[in-house]
Amino acid sequence: MKNFAFYNPVKILFGKGQIANIAAEIPADAKILITYGGGSIKANGVYDQVKSALAGRNVFEFGGIEPNPHLETLLKAVELIRKEGIDFLLAVGGGSVVDGTKFIAAAVFFEGDPWDILAKNAPVTAALPFGAVLTLPATGSEMNDGSVVTKWETKDKLFFASSQVFPRFSVLDPETTYSLPPRQIGNGIVDAYTHVMEQYLTYPANAPLQDRMAESILKTLIEEGPKTLANPQDYDARANLVWSATMALNGLIGAGVPQDWTTHMIGHELTALHGLDHAQTLAVVLPSTLTIRRDRKWQKLLQYAERVWGIVDGDQEQRVNDAIAKTRNFFESVGVRTRLSDYGVGLDSIPAIIKNLEKHGMTALGEYEDVNPQVVEQILALCA
Amino acid sequence: MKNFAFYNPVKILFGKGQIANIAAEIPADAKILITYGGGSIKANGVYDQVKSALAGRNVFEFGGIEPNPHLETLLKAVELIRKEGIDFLLAVGGGSVVDGTKFIAAAVFFEGDPWDILAKNAPVTAALPFGAVLTLPATGSEMNDGSVVTKWETKDKLFFASSQVFPRFSVLDPETTYSLPPRQIGNGIVDAYTHVMEQYLTYPANAPLQDRMAESILKTLIEEGPKTLANPQDYDARANLVWSATMALNGLIGAGVPQDWTTHMIGHELTALHGLDHAQTLAVVLPSTLTIRRDRKWQKLLQYAERVWGIVDGDQEQRVNDAIAKTRNFFESVGVRTRLSDYGVGLDSIPAIIKNLEKHGMTALGEYEDVNPQVVEQILALCA
User: One GO cellular component from the entry (chains A, B) (predicted)?
Assistant: First the structure.
């Protein structure tokens, strides 16, 4: 096992009706800004629950945060906060709203151009406190300190992390996710699944507990994902998806083990350049990454085949192939297509993707830091 | 899944050499009190590492905290803290030192008799901040907010919990545990294993991720426990035991599921009255609890048999029996005896144990709160 530091102070309020408890988590005299997305929270009752929980409080609103939140939009919230003297944020929505709110929280106190937090890894030394009411199980942002923001003007989709931007609390009420369309549930399943794979499918590090916990999440997603798609109002199935997505990226399964993240880095460029949903890019890239990197990941692929998919027959080659095929089939089975051609993206797009990765310094990806532009080209060629 | 709140802000510093990093976790101007036990930290080099990490800091010491820490001893530390104006504690030792330090931290600010925190569930509204350097993998106290203290005068061993007494940080360096005698390693394995069983072996709650995570810890303990006993300086085996023991009781596997704790409550009285090690009481009581409560735990016993022990042959009755027998054999195999007679305790001791449980209000134990004194008597009779 590798040395590690683990720290995650996010308070989770999980279950039916938990929105009613948020007032106790926010200072009584706070000037609160509710941040949200396209307005679905007004259609599905979540907005009303939040307003009711915060009755009598000093509440402002900022809507319109996009999927893959735009720097340009988020900076408008920063202006509003400074103008009104707001001192607590409440993100109500999915991972994009939570990610965007993390950036807003950090940008408020940042001196200089806040885009430097992502473009130049400028350190975040302070941030506004905030909580989250999560309405889409997928990104894990509700229980970690990472955030992905897109500069729309230049199509740069970049990541930052800082212990300053852990949510103070996150409400996870599975019922608030009942109204999500199947596409978003399928995306959430693929996103959570891939988060686990990035931290698990590398090389053996003699960390059996982390391995088994990762496999636990994968097996639960395989079991509960289809159930919750088939019956969106099955409370337990949805609750298990929600908790799995959170556990997939709260730092625990990645503690003390090598991590990959090749698929995510390539995926970010695909979203920035071609507008695919984040999870769609992962469903396309992950099977190809596993295939091209099979020699480097051999032992873990065999373990994955046996423990997650129960594949024990055939020679090693065959088991590895089967495991990758089953991964692809699972993504397809939850409604997320796994070929670039499914999204109208041709192989002629590869040079621009690689150029963007180079621009962002992503030229030595993966658990061995040896996924260079040539390897990325091979991976993308296989995504056709 | 049940509703739950999860909150655990303990920062974990895991791995070789991490003691060197504690200075950065403690305010520079703090008056620090190092709390410890019988002095083994002076023999095994941990004390020197801590002193070296805190060179130039204002450091006081308080040694002599016993296994099953005594109220009477801990109150002397409280006196010292008040006299010297100490404002940060550093527990260096095993679970008893950490538990004792939690009580000290809470007692310093408590108005009235601090024993009321345990005897009367008096609320803890403030506590001194503290960190921990863990030298014995077992109790999980290094990453939770619970503590068990014994009032020696009256032989009362009681529990309290408060979010005020989470450690600010805990150092888990597996190398600091190399010098532990086999008895303490065996005890640690049994303690961690039983912590998992108390949160897992109840009734199905449709929480498959929590189940699988619990099974992950059990399987890792079964696999790595004997390895680390056979070769105490196998770094990875010891690291896996240490991390498993911490994960067994940091709140995660118990979130959203029913919990039992019958075995622990009976065990506490056995330690208080007869001086058995904590883990010895668990090794004695758990197999009997599972046997007497088999009907109430039937479904989970079958799941445990299959997933943890690979028992799939035979009828249900046989599988349940096998799983309980394997549990007992595992405890014996790591050197912890599982019969009251192994410790010279006869069945004539049962009435006093039950009387003590009644005195402490423990008359409706277990996940159904139906383990009354009559059921406890049956369990203890089977422990002979």
Answer: cytosol
